[in-house]
Amino acid sequence: MTENAAGISRAEISQAAAAAGGGGAAAAPYEPNWSSLDSRPLPAWYDDAKVGVFLVWGVYSVPSYGSEWFWQFWQGSKNPKYIDFMERNFRPNFTYQDFASHFTTELFDPASWAELVAASGARYVVLTSKHHEGYTNWPSAFSPNWNSMDVGPKRDLVGDLAKAFRSKAPHVHFGLYHSMYEWFNPLYLQDRHNNYETNLFVETKTVPELYELINQYQPEVVWSDGDWAAPDWYWNSTVFLAWLFNSSPVKDTVVVNDRWGEGIMCHHGSFYTCQDRYNPGVLQNHKWENAMTLDKASWGYRREATLTDYLTIHDLLTTLAQTISCGGNLLVNVGPTHDGRIPTIMEERLRQLGSWLDINGDSVYSSRPWTHQNDSLTPGVWYTSRGDRVYAMVLEWPEDDLVKLGSVVTTKHTSITMLGYGQGNLTFTPLEDTGTHVTFPAMSKVVSQWVWVLDMLGVIPAGHTTQ
């Protein structure tokens, strides 16, 4: 368990960290300060990818009740709901560590996970390497007896999945989530007691783990979390990021989020998350990501979830349209089970998303925000663009097959088609004041089942001079 990390001498851990490749002085051009780190351009692949899948998986997948914060809610905040659950279902003196031997993953097939993520249309994947419970999904030298090789699966979950993606779905960029803090690690609790004026936990656990992950698995997304309780200098965040951007094996392609210390979120990072399920609905001036869940209440798998707890495919595509139109990426979370399955309803949502992207992906991949993000006249219409093409994602099929676009002005060069409808141009007429009236084809002749996309050439945004 996490407490055993204190049983290794500091010198031994420091030596192991050095062997893993961390701790060296950063080379130019990026210095360990936010001004310098923020000057690094965003690798183009991330902005073009638009869609990712988030896999939140750990020991909490065994009780699979309430949330992935099960341990904290049970023994930290003493939530009566969790206490009652344990008293009714488990023997006295059962510990959270006892759950680990039941994290069996016997049905985990990395190749099938890679196939599913590829089928979803996602262009990157992020797996939890370690959540706030401290259990590592790889055989970390810095988490003895509390990792996936020593207890539970008896295998390297991170390594197995990384190999599967690079073999079966090489176009999907592989990324890792990592929690900076651990709820009950005595080293962390000691540093917290000292008002973070000591950082034994960071020097011997968190930062060595990060170097180990980067050097062994070469993730192209480093999704940090659990940082908010302490300032960035306690976590040595800028020193690590300078090494990551200057000298690491992924220095040219890696992207990082914005969770590197108290007050850093939504201010520094390759992309901003700002808060869980962040969906501002307006264009942002920095690349951002909407990390959201198919289960409305939890990131980890919950056995007690009901059908209404899950997003419908229309909910998911609505969130996608809103997010991409405003310049964000969508990171769709699913929570696997303790035995290594993607729950059927989550698989269905991912495959539905993929079938939609197979038809309408031109409006998403490598797209950019248009002048208008949503329509000024008709609710539920969101815009993207690619070169001289403008795409209108229409969330609901319009009444009488007619949609009024207040933000689009036609010209003599205009043509409008619908993705998934292969029978030519659609009829359109200018509105009296400004905008365009578009006639939809018969629904029976359109391949797409949800959220219909107009592909427009030769249009200009309302409010601009007609060409």
UniProtKB/TrEMBL annotation:
Ranges for domain Alpha-L-fucosidase C-terminal: 373-455
SMART domains xref list: Alpha_L_fucos
Name of a matching Pfam family: Fucosidase_C
Superkingdom field: Eukaryota
Glycoprotein is among the record's keywords: yes
A GO CC term attached to the entry: lysosome
Protein's UniProt keywords contain Ribosomal protein: no
Enzyme nomenclature, EC number: 3.2.1.51
Any single biological process term in GO: glycoside catabolic process
Domain Glycoside hydrolase family 29 N-terminal: 26-362
Protein name as catalogued: Putative alpha-L-fucosidase
Protein species of origin: Petrolisthes cinctipes
Upper classification of the organism: Eukaryota, Metazoa, Ecdysozoa, Arthropoda, Crustacea
